[in-house]
Amino acid sequence: MMIMKWQWLSIALALTLTACQFHPDVKIDNDWKIYKSRFISADGRIIDTGNNNISHSEGQGYGLLLALGMNDEELFKNIWQWTKTNLQVRTDNLFIWRRRPATALADEDKNNASDGDILIAWSLLEASKKWKQKDYENEAIKILTDIKQKLIIQKSGLDMILPGEYGFQFPDSTLINLSYWVYPALKTFSEFDNDPVWGKLTASGQTLMQKARFGRWQLPPDWLEIKNDESMTPAKNKQFGYDAVRVPLYSLLGGINPELLSPFAKYWSFYQGYTPAWIAVEENIMDSYGANNGIKAIKEVTLLALKSTDSVNFASIENDQDYYSATLVLLSKLAYQQLADK
């Protein structure tokens, strides 16, 4: 039977509680079948095929959200059990960021990845509502408690999310990643936890999106260094690429002011038939090989949201497509559904 309902998204976006269906020109059933067969093992491990088949907290979080969206409760349980057993092995309730095949736990880095923690907590809260499972809510609240205690700091007058518990704060600066502001998750957190920090983070993310604009296209970098004097500079690869491409996607899913997305639309519209995989935001130098289908899908839904195009042309998940690209395709189709329902 073709499964085409994404009730969790309707809840997360504060739309209607009525399950919605994809328009006929946007297919999902075969994509999901391929995704499960290629990226989800029988025991619930999400396999990053583009990164030496490792598993990580981000991937487990995406797997939980997709299983929830496809109303596959048994698969959700399997993914959560693998995640809890293999990644929730710190002294707190957060998750180590990675597990490698044939690698002992003692040899793994015990640091977390904050976006993975956020995605997992979000999916558990949505599952607790969808399937009336109080245990999922209890697990999520414990994760939120440690996120607040260990991953949220104040800098330059703003609440910010550290990418991990350690390794990102320095004597003269702090390193952040704007794609870790998962806006629809922050909205759900505020429903279960009255702490105003979630609203403050939503506001700080939008402020940073306005300030952290670089180069010809005024785009945010994958990694942003914030100095103690409040100045900002691109860090690490100094690119708008595989991380920051999620900023417009999460903004759409979270109902953030679409005017903040205009730089992305201008950038993608300019190159018309070509979609860069990345661009160095200061030198305005881009790749020569082009973006994967996941990035192209985010481009399509962003241009539609800003009325820069009248239709979308999503590619289906292909048999040789890697995990990350395939995940972005499915998430972009969710964002499309939100727009189609308005």
Instruction: Return the structural class.
Output: alpha+beta
- Biggest beta sheet attributes: 4 strands, antiparallel
Per DSSP, the total helix count is 12
Mean pLDDT: 90
Q: Explain this structure to me?
A:
The model is unreliable at 1-22 (pLDDT under 50). The chain has two domains: 40-150, no CATH class; 153-291, Glycosyltransferase (Alpha/alpha barrel). It is built from twelve helices and eleven strands. The chain has helices at residues 7-12, 29-39, 57-69, 73-86, 114-130, 134-150, 183-192, 197-211, 246-253, 262-270, 293-305, 323-340; strands at 55-56, 98-99, 152-155, 158-161, 169-170, 173-176, 223-227, 232-235, 239-240, 279-280, 285-286. A four-stranded antiparallel β-sheet has the order 5-6-7-8, with no helix packed on it. α3 packs antiparallel against α4. The longest helix is centred in the C-terminal third of the chain and has 18 residues, at 323-340. β7 (223-227) and β8 (232-235) form a beta hairpin. Helix content is 44%, strand content 10%. With 342 residues, it is α+β, with helices and mostly antiparallel strands. The chain is globular, with a radius of gyration of 19 Å. The two termini are 27 Å apart.
